[in-house]
Specification:
By secondary structure, the chain is of the alpha+beta class. Strands 1, 2, 3, 4, 5, 6, 7, 8, 9 and 10 form a ten-stranded mixed β-sheet that branches. A hairpin with a 2-residue loop joins strand 8 and strand 9.
């Protein structure tokens, strides 16, 4: 898989804030972290009653520097088994460690399935989720008869023929502002199922069938439900035109099955 940190920075600067007026207490800083993780053994981004989450692991590691509890906010609440190449997190801290020391110290503390790629000092009102303008997700499909055991944790193995042209047409229909109710998990509370998708494309990358989508926000399981529907189109189980019809507020039951989590990765988060 390829990917990296966000292509646009949110007014960040590196370094240490200095106490105002010569005092000893450091001023609180808002830190922006870019994080990558293999979600195979994790319960997802959000802390849970049991199991390791990315949020709880980061909070525990950062608390060692802060000398007390901290709350970390993530740009995307990835589910159990979902990965990230460029997840963004924000946290308010008073510790005076420079950002390079934080990167080294955090990676020395965190399990190897979670890596902090960078830490920057951001503006005071920066919030990883609320300040985000665009998010990009990538889903990988191994459309081969026999999948490699070395990539099984990062792909959905779909043997049998798939019509790539049909899937490409269906993917293109997702672009625009639509009611994505048909691609939202049943029972998930949300203010509105309307989202705007800026890019939705299917392509081949080193033998993998890749679906990549960029939008202003995503409902729970939305990308995985879109992928499940695209695969049904590729198998000839549903017409290409059905995708556009689903985007008119159709119920979840009319769309395809939810694709498994391991093929999905949060690639990057962009900020204006």
């Amino acid at each position: 898989m390829r990917g990296g940190p966000p292509s646009q920075q949110a007014g960040v600067t590196r370094g240490v804030s200095r106490p105002a007026g010569g005092g000893d207490a450091p001023e609180p800083r808002t830190l922006k972290l870019v994080v990558a993780y293999d979600g195979t053994s994790l319960v997802g981004w959000q802390r849970q009653a049991a199991g390791d989450s990315v949020q709880s692991l980061l909070e525990e590691a950062l608390a060692r520097f802060e000398g007390g509890p901290v709350t970390v906010h993530g740009a995307g609440r990835t589910d159990a088994g979902v990965h990230a190449l460029g997840q963004v997190a924000s946290v308010r801290m008073t510790c005076a460690h420079d950002t390079s020391t934080l990167v080294r110290g955090l990676n020395a503390t965190l399990p190897t399935c979670v890596r902090v790629l960078s830490v920057d000092v951001s503006r005071a009102d920066f919030h990883a989720r609320l300040s985000a303008a665009r998010k990009t997700y990538r889903y990988q499909i191994a459309n081969v008869q026999t999948a490699s055991p070395f990539t099984r944790a990062f792909v959905w193995h779909v043997p049998g023929p798939l019509s790539r042209p049909a899937m490409e047409q269906a993917a293109a229909a997702v672009v625009g502002t639509h009611d994505f109710s048909a691609f939202q998990s049943v029972g998930t509370p949300t203010r509105s199922p309307v989202r705007t998708v800026f890019s939705s494309r299917l392509f081949d990358d080193a033998g993998l069938l890749i679906y990549e989508v960029t939008g202003d926000g995503f409902l729970r399981h939305m990308v995985r439900a879109i992928v499940g529907t695209l695969v049904e189109v590729g198998r000839g189980w549903r017409a290409v035109a059905s995708t556009a019809e689903l985007l008119r507020g159709a119920p979840r039951s009319q769309a395809g099955a939810t694709a498994p989590p391991q093929g999905l990765s949060l690639v990057r988060v962009d900020y204006d």
